[in-house]
Design a protein that fits this description.
16 helices; globular; disordered N terminus; 342 residues; mainly alpha; two-stranded parallel sheet
């Protein structure tokens, strides 16, 4: 599916006009008090979770701790996302240092690898050739990529809508594997530091499990923790672009970002649960905007898009998942037809 171009406004660059309105509203200003509080809460969640883990000891109640830490790890990852966009600190060095501590040390994912991947996604969201998030791997996001897949890959493609949420249980492990693969290649900035922090995370994590829990409990904890971490993390990103149009590459910046993104309506609880990613349109237009400012920017952007005739997609959380799953099902149609013919 490609984007249909909409008429431009008659005066100047559309994005420049919108950016002036956002700046006039003071929405690009830093929010140090918010991020100090958020970082404090996330740190307490992390320390509290592992403290509870030690105090509870060898018990099957640790599966509850695993679920709590899965939520905590996701919140740490969402904070690392804001750090990567320099929403927290003004300069690069503290942003990178905090990002490495949050990504590599706290949750065991390469911050540098993810930042490079995420930057390419922001530059060309949903582009079949340039966005790594829609590259044909386990799931297929472009119809032409669904043809010719056999065996397990073919089975997944034919049933990918139904398998989407079960596959999210493997997302955390996949991110760790991808991190290791990326760091095995030379050329990544701060490669040795990233490797050291990942090794420290893995060593401390496995030592804690094997020291406190029985072997069977340790395996169960690891599986539950990593599976729920993957599901929650995947659910924060899935509503944002999945099922939205794929650009041709000829669009201007504003249309490329707005037409490929979807917002999710909700309360401040939704904002907290999704880390502000429910304002995906505003985030893609202004990636450096602090998360708490996105809610205030949303009506400004929506009204401006209406003025210049650019479709603005906003829906409920459940509907966003339904749209993404329907799109996955439709993309898999050629694979199902091909399989039936065989």
């Amino acid at each position: 599916m490609t984007i249909t171009m909409t008429p431009r406004s008659p005066s100047g660059s559309d994005f420049a006009v919108l950016a002036r309105r956002i700046n006039q509203a003071g929405l690009m200003q830093r929010r140090p008090a918010y991020y100090a509080a958020r970082m404090g809460v996330v740190t307490l969640m992390l320390l509290g979770g592992w403290t509870a883990f030690v105090l509870i000891g060898s018990s099957w109640w640790q599966l509850v701790t695993a679920a709590v830490l899965a939520v905590t790890f996701t919140q740490v990852a969402l904070l690392a996302h804001d750090l990567a966009h320099r929403q927290v600190f003004r300069t690069k060095r503290p942003s990178e240092l905090a990002g490495l501590l949050a990504g590599n040390l706290a949750v065991g994912m390469s911050y540098g690898w993810w930042m490079d991947k995420h930057t390419r996604h922001h530059n060309n969201p949903n582009h079949d050739d340039l966005d790594p998030d829609v590259a044909p791997e386990v799931l297929i996001w472009a119809t032409e990529s669904a043809v010719g897949r056999r065996g397990l890959a073919g089975f997944i493609t034919r049933h990918q809508a139904g398998l989407f949420f079960p596959l999210l249980t493997l997302l955390a492990i996949d991110l760790k594997v991808s991190s290791v693969k990326a760091l095995r290649r030379s050329g990544m900035k701060r490669r040795r530091l990233e490797i050291a922090l990942l090794v420290l995370h893995a060593t401390a994590y496995l030592t804690a499990l094997l020291t406190v829990l029985s072997p069977l409990q340790a395996v169960a904890f690891l599986l539950v923790h990593q599976a729920l971490f993957g599901v929650y993390l995947g659910m924060t990103f899935a509503p944002n672009h999945k099922g939205m149009p794929h650009p041709s590459g000829d669009e201007d910046f504003l249309r490329k970002q707005v037409l490929t993104s979807r917002n999710v309506r909700g309360s401040r609880l939704t904002d907290a649960a999704l880390g502000g990613l429910n304002y995906q349109i505003e985030h893609h237009l202004f990636p450096g905007m602090p998360t708490p400012s996105l809610r205030r920017a949303q009506p400004i952007v929506e009204a401006y898009c209406a003025d210049i005739g650019v479709p603005y997609e906003q829906t409920s959380l459940v509907t966003s998942y339904r749209q993404a799953l329907r799109y996955l099902h439709d993309v898999g149609a050629p694979a199902r037809t091909e399989h039936a013919a065989r």
